[in-house]
Amino acid sequence: MKNRIRLLHVPSESEAAQLLKSIGVEPYGIVSMAPKMRHLNILVEGLTPKVANIIKQEMLSQGGDAAVSRGCVDCSVSRTDALIMGTVKQVLRFAEKLSLQPFGLKDVSSDLRELLDRISRRRFLLRTPRREIGMAGRTLVMGVINMTPDSFSDGGMIADAESGLRQAERLIAEGADILDVGGESSRPGAGPVPLKEELRRVIPLIRRISREADVPVSVDTAKAEVARQAIDAGAEIVNDVTALRGDRKMARIVAEAGVPVILMHMRGTPRTMQKGDLVYRSLLGEILRFLSERVGHAVEAGIPPDRIMVDPGIGFGKSVEDNLRLIRHLGELASLGLPLCVGVSRKHFTGKITGVVRPGERIEGTAAAVTAAILNGADVVRVHDVGAMKRVAAMADAVRGKR
Fold first, then answer.
1. Are strands 237-240 and 124-127 parallel, antiparallel or unpaired?
2. Helix (H, G, I), strand (E, B), or coil: what is residue 122?
3. DSSP run (H or E) holding 66
4. Which of 64, 145, 177, 213 has the highest local Cβ count within 10 Å?
């Protein structure tokens, strides 16, 4: 090449603004041009050919484009998806024009504006009854404490509250921002644990940690009574792998206590999730629809959005390829506008890829998956090896530009 010319990667509007400033663009020009530097691909599903054709023409008029079914031209299809392609600036102008259109396009316009607002939210504040947990400058590390004899990774290692407290102290010393205490395994094939047994396993430990340490405790349970007693013992977060489906009383308990909840995607139950049909027509689409519905259910039950986190459920009813694809496309979950918790620690797919059989030795695979998750949008990572993953997260945050 005769000229100094190169391709630029501009992942955020703030980096676009910095680049324009370095060139010497005036402030007004920066405000005007930064949205033109970010390209979006937005999928709108289930449109009539008439609506899809209008969307295509309006996007073309803005300098963008929209991909629709070839059957839209002669209306030989009853429904089609539309893939809208354009810069942030073009999509905003497109939304303005749609707001004046009939055939339900005003709703499409409103949804587009809401989507753009949600994907711009990257600074979260999670409110518990005892504190505010900021998720802006760095990724939070949630340390796992399994009070279970059958956990896939460390089952039977912690038998009572005393040994659990020693584990909690070690994880806190290693830098854990949150401790997640569970008394029922959610490994593939695991069966349910009786209520009294789960209470016996987790309540004494949660009470000890809450009394002796100043780190928020999350209770990993799908039982409302366990959640209620755990909150009374000092737990500040409920981590429900069933997303409030396992116990109809759970949403009310969480709402009345004013604690945050983590809603996770899972097909079936731990006993059945890796059996049968693991094929998804649209992996991200199904997960987004599921989490959106569960968030709506939580809000209707009285749990405000600033007390909700979502978890895509990596390893829960998904193949190895699904897990990898989900990590690559975590950024799509930003459309929910909520903090994202991701658990990849020591999971089977990391061992499958690296050839490591023993879960406790899957640290390299875990580190790579944690890094990829953070670079693609994770706000909280749930891990067993807190010390090592705290350092991994610090490096990933630095690369991502969160520090």
1. unpaired
2. coil
3. strand 65-67
4. 145
**E strand segments, 70-172:** 80-87, 124-127, 132-135, 140-146
Q: Which residue has the tokens 């000890």?
A: 208
Catalytic positions, written as ranges: 347, 382
Q: What pLDDT shows up at residue 187?
A: 65
The two three-digit tokens of residue 133, written as one number? 């947990």
Q: Are strands 80-87 and 65-67 parallel, antiparallel or unpaired?
A: antiparallel
Structure tokens at 49: 């050919």
Q: Both tokens of residue 269?
A: 């139950």
User: Tokens 């839209």 appear where?
Assistant: 72
Determine phi and psi for 106, rounding to 5 degrees: -60, -35
Where does the pLDDT of residue 151 fall: very low under 50, low under 70, confident under 90, or very high at 90 and above? low
Q: Which pLDDT value is given to residue 153? A: 54
Q: What are the tokens at 239?
A: 């981590």
Angstrom distance (rounded) from CA 245 to CA 255: 15
In this prediction, residue 101 carries a pLDDT of: 86
For the chain, list the domains and their CATH numbers.
29-119 (3.30.1370), 126-400 (3.20.20.20)
Which helix or strand (DSSP H or E) is residue 377 part of? none
